């Protein structure tokens, strides 16, 4: 079905509408063979709080952005190559229901659908697109992914030293390797994570010691496993001082 739609006028028109909604600031989306599979609003678990985002699933990429005017205008476009995506279901907890993790080498985050049916449809379509891409390219699924950031609200004190309380002066920082919320003194070191940035990024002391000793997988696996069990446990080269609508995600 995807192959039949690839060169159809209806598909070209739908993709053009998406491009126009992002305006001049968005990247061109029309390329030969690309098909718009579906779209919808998902709740993305951001650094400060859950926020509604418009998502577009194509047969080779996942695109999302901030909603300015529904169906008419979006901004802060993000494009994720599906070839690098893996997804995992996460358990319902409180108001956060029907969620799953979207994991890539550069950024990982949780999203939530309005219903269980919608969640199932999104996950099935994403998995089908990823499977088709990998089948065509002969590549293997990515086993490297960035940590999911713990939301600020989940940490009143540093998650490493368990002592430093966060205040307007003593700000929260995120370790780019494990995703924990940490204080400044516990995250003074930088380490080069090529999949996330071309420059050394902030990491906590615990992860720095693991990375320096070559035990890279231990740090990441413990973080991702804990998140898969509960929602309580994000853009390339994000600055600690970024705090706008999306770079703060």
TrEMBL record:
Keyword ATP-binding tagged: no
Membrane topology annotation: Peripheral membrane protein
Compartments it resides in: Early endosome membrane; Endoplasmic reticulum
A single GO molecular function term of this UniProt record: zinc ion binding
UniProt biased composition (Acidic residues): 238-249
FYVE-type domain: residues covered: 152-212
Ranges annotated as biased composition (Low complexity): 221-237
InterPro entries xrefs: PH-like_dom_sf (IPR011993), PH_domain (IPR001849), PH_domain-containing_F (IPR051765), PH_Phafin (IPR037871), PLEKHF2_FYVE (IPR047966), Znf_FYVE (IPR000306), Znf_FYVE-rel (IPR017455), Znf_FYVE_PHD (IPR011011)
PROSITE patterns noted in UniProt: PH_DOMAIN, ZF_FYVE
GO biological process, one term: endosome to lysosome transport
Chain coiled-coil ranges: none
Pfam families: FYVE, PH
Residue ranges crossing the lipid bilayer per the database entry: none
One GO cellular component term noted in the UniProt record for this chain: endoplasmic reticulum
Keywords: Endoplasmic reticulum, Endosome, Membrane, Metal-binding, Protein transport, Transport, Zinc, Zinc-finger
Job description of the protein: May play a role in early endosome fusion upstream of RAB5, hence regulating receptor trafficking and fluid-phase transport. Enhances cellular sensitivity to TNF-induced apoptosis.
Protein name (database record): Pleckstrin homology domain-containing family F member 2
UniProt source species: Syrrhaptes paradoxus (Pallas's sandgrouse)
């Amino acid at each position: 079905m995807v192959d039949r739609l690839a060169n159809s006028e209806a598909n070209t028109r739908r993709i053009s509408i998406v491009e126009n909604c992002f305006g001049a600031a968005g990247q061109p989306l029309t390329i030969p063979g690309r098909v718009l599979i579906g779209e919808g609003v998902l709740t993305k678990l951001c650094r400060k709080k859950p926020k509604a985002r418009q998502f577009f699933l194509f047969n080779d990429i996942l695109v999302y952005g901030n909603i300015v005017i529904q169906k008419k205008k979006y901004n802060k476009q993000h494009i994720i190559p599906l070839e690098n995506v893996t997804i995992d279901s996460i358990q319902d907890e409180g108001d956060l229901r029907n969620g799953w993790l979207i994991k890539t080498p550069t950024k990982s985050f949780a999203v939530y659908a309005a219903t269980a049916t919608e969640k199932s449809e999104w996950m099935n379509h994403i998995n089908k697109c990823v499977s088709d891409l990998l089948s065509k390219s002969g590549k293997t699924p990515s086993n490297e992914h960035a940590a999911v950031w713990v939301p600020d609200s989940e940490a009143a004190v540093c998650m490493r030293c368990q002592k430093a309380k966060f205040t307007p002066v003593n700000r929260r920082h995120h370790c780019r390797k494990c995703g924990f919320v940490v204080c400044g003194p516990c995250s003074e070191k930088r380490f080069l994570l090529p999949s996330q940035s071309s420059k050394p990024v902030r990491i906590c002391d615990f992860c720095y010691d693991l990375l320096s000793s070559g035990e890279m997988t231990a740090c990441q696996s413990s973080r991702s496993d804990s998140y898969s069990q509960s929602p309580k446990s994000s853009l390339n080269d994000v600055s600690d001082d970024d705090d706008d609508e999306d770079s703060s995600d």
